[in-house]
Design brief:
about 400 residues; alpha/beta; Rossmann fold; eight-stranded mixed beta sheet; four-stranded antiparallel beta sheet; 14 helices; about 50% helix; flat; binds adenosine-5'-diphosphate; binds magnesium ion
């Protein structure tokens, strides 16, 4: 269950593709053991957020921390600070040079100030690049040190006969540790179970791929693990030698889940894992994820395009609109007190099995230009109630506080 320990900390995350700001300054935490729902219409940046977290991109801006270790760091803020320092300097120089006589001392001071800022930001850029590239190396160095500590006393106390097997185990474990990446602790399950499984590979090969990349070569061990995860996801070991096309959509998604959990992840990013499935199958896959969550102590980021899917499953929900997080709250609270007009519009789209309600239900259409006047006062993420955040400006904030009263 959810704890007070922050597992993933995403701060000011931006991912731009040219001029397209797919994710634009998004911040949130994911607590160990919780299911965090990430919701918003198609194209709002949910998948990009997930892919940024598992390091499929060098992010444009912001920081991503996993267990307190910075695994992703963008350079945007630093580059902007440098540009800002240069612009400030230029303006100051023009101002000073307009005076007669020119104050040379002030000019020199301005220049030093700019140079200091640039040096400071460049140091941050260097640190960001280092963290982005080296977090895996540092993590595997830690694992290797732990292995040495574990095996040293075993070697000392082992008999002549035991030694060769022990050495073999140690070498194997060492190889795996060398290749283990911090980010393998974060696994992603993809929306389309057909496109994400290679049709030429057997289920065994698909599921074992991550282990093999990680350096595991012990065939027996690999097989054992494949069988174990197949059973955990409700399939059987006989399925290992078959190909993806021999399975139904729901079963294919189970294969996708098996492929993720074989890596012993702590965090799973499930990217619309049931959107491509029949409604009757959706609940089964969600139940499976729920069971695995309890059994393995998983933390899950569950991405969906509509709120009905995440409602019962998520502890907290973040609502995204056009690259921004617009509302974030515990699940119950979000459904009880939806404040941002976009959240309200998403809620109005959920049908309920209640004829009277359905007769009255009106879809609210969200039109940002009508809803907000951000011409003078810009919006930021504000906490309207402990744990409940809304992207709003001061006037809206006051209004939301009134609504909550
Ligand atoms: N690799 C990419 N290159 C360029 N644009 C992209 C790329 N990936 C996503 N986008 C664009 O970024 C926006 C957000 O996409 P995405 O994160 O897939 O949204 P969602 O998962 O919420 O549907 C979309 O406009 C999409 O077209
Ligand atoms: Mg997507």
């Amino acid at each position: 269950m959810a704890s007070n320990e922050v597992l993933l900390h995403v701060e000011h995350l931006s991912q731009h593709f040219g001029s397209l700001k797919a994710v634009n300054d998004v911040s949130f935490d994911v607590m160990k053991g919780e299911v965090f729902g990430l919701v918003g219409e198609s194209g709002c940046g949910k998948t990009t957020t997930g892919r940024s977290i598992i390091k499929l991109y060098d992010i444009t801006g912001g920081d991503i921390y996993y267990k307190g270790i910075r695994i992703g760091a963008g350079l945007l803020a630093y580059k902007q600070a440098i540009a800002q320092a240069k612009a400030t300097y230029k303006a100051k120089v023009e101002e000073l040079k307009a005076q007669n006589p020119v104050d040379q001392a002030a000019l020199a001071a301005c220049r030093r100030e700019m140079q200091d800022t640039i040096a400071e930001q460049k140091a941050k850029i260097k640190a960001a690049k280092h963290d982005q590239e080296c977090c895996d190396k540092e993590y595997s160095a830690k694992l290797i040190a732990q292995l040495k500590e574990k095996y040293q006393p075993l070697f000392e106390s082992a008999s002549e006969d035991e030694l060769p097997a022990l050495k073999r185990d140690y070498k194997n474990a060492l190889r795996v540790a060398k290749k283990t990446k911090l980010v393998t602790q974060i696994q992603m399950i993809f929306q389309d179970p057909i496109a994400s499984l290679d049709p030429r590979m057997t289920v065994r090969e698909i599921i074992a791929e991550g282990l093999i990349i990680q350096g595991e070569r012990d065939k027996e061990k690999i097989n054992e693990k494949v069988y174990e995860v197949l059973e955990m996801v409700g399939l059987v070991r006989e399925h290992a030698s078959r190909y993806p096309h021999e399975f139904s959509g729901g079963q294919r998604q189970r294969i996708g889940v098996a492929r993720a959990i074989i890596m012993k992840p702590e965090l799973i990013i499930a990217d619309e894992p049931v959107s491509a499935l029949d409604v009757s199958i959706q609940a089964q896959v969600i139940n499976l994820l729920n069971e695995l969550r309890d059994q393995l102590g998983l933390t899950i980021i569950f991405i969906a395009h509509d709120l009905s899917v995440v409602k019962y499953f998520s502890d907290r929900i973040g609502v995204m609109y056009f690259g921004k997080m617009v509302e974030l709250a515990p699940s119950d609270e979000l459904f009880l007190n939806p404040l941002h007009p976009y959240t309200r519009s998403l809620l109005s789209a959920i049908p309920l099995p209640d004829p009277a309600y359905e007769k009255e239900r009106k879809r609210i259409v969200y039109n940002p230009l009508v809803e907000h006047d951000y011409s003078t006062d810009q919006p930021t993420m504000r906490e309207v109630k402990p744990g409940h955040f809304v992207y709003c400006n001061e006037a809206e904030y006051q209004r939301y506080l009134d609504v909550l009263k």
